[in-house]
């Protein structure tokens, strides 16, 4: 009986749909570890995660079968074995599973039992639930393979323990959310280990996929819940874990313990990864954005430079007759501090042209928000024209507070390809800007020092679409609005619930109404990085036509 095992954890990125590329990357890692016994890859690593309806395409299933056989072929002779996550077709059903590849063949397969169907996940739409799994026999060790959600509930691990399992290896596609590190380790994995007294290897992936980002942060627990390995967040890592069997079962020798990001560095790095991987995977040469002199565009530009480098970020200041000299100076200051190109294109001639064009139709009407929105749409058209001409993706700069209440112009400042602030409330934007001016993120390609003038952070927010305009003219102060929105969105609270918390009743009623009637705008907004538990898009799916109110 084998008393020693070396198990390699491959915390990797992926490319959804690039089955050959993903397989090639796994083979490269595998071949670099000839002395390992078992090389483990994340959930659905062969096809990428989340695959959404891509897996319903028969050609994808066929390609997955072909590439899995190719991976198995790499394990001939006395070479290490592999655990590879993929999709599997059996008796007309499609399963999310994991295969043990050894000796040139697919030796064992286990299917996921608990299929998440909330928030970003819709696996019940795609997969059948597998039967309760037995452990696999691997070189003298009975290994249980709970897949992702299987370890977030006690049933599967309890069953595996009853079947004689000696070690748990749980592969994941666990997206980043604020404070999720603590939930994975402290509330989930540690609890399963306490219940089963079995050691647990928890393997996650890294990288961005559309709106979700994966932070890695994989780890290994011994049966007494002690942490033996903590892999880094945000970076790929291929780590050997060394195991020995004694009277009390299998234990892992101590390894490196990486310190994970504190708050808000984790949010900032999530934004970097989401934008970087979206731009690069979709082969854009860089990004272009409107730099207004305000905090949201300044923060968006900073994240873009940290993600892509200053030479791939193109800023454009588009002043109108309402633009202050302070905004012009602050935009110029941001661009200089970040080292980006800054073009200035006045929208005054276009505004005058629209005024003349619409003069007859608007002759008997008062000037109102329509004229404000025309300015925003002119800026949107200008930026999209430059994107169209030069190929740079347009980065939008609106935050979650604005998107919640519709304080954004559809086909104007909402136009674009991606948003790093889509799930960041205004107060979070202030916090991130203050943090970035004092710190350089671990993944950052930008400058070591401050990235925006202090006046960008301290001045009252304004859209500058009319004389002396401030956000507070239309909205409550953000220290009131943001907690109120968090209650309505993340907590799904009613007007009465929020009034009990001390919010003004009429204010809550007004904001709830604005939240619901802005749904049609959000449905047409670009994707953006998911940060919290209820982002607009994958997490919170409300009907556009909706007459319900909580009063």
Automatic annotation (TrEMBL):
Domain of life: Bacteria
Domain CN hydrolase, first and last residues per copy: 5-245
Catalytic activity, EC: 6.3.5.1
Catalysed reactions, semicolon-separated: deamido-NAD(+) + L-glutamine + ATP + H2O = L-glutamate + AMP + diphosphate + NAD(+) + H(+)
Keyword NAD: yes
Amino-acid positions noted as binding ATP in the UniProt annotation, renumbered to this chain: 290-297, 397
HAMAP family membership: NadE_glutamine_dep (MF_02090)
Stated family: In the C-terminal section; belongs to the NAD synthetase family. Belongs to the NAD synthetase family.
The protein, known as: Glutamine-dependent NAD(+) synthetase
Naturally occurring in which organism (per UniProt): Parasphingorhabdus cellanae
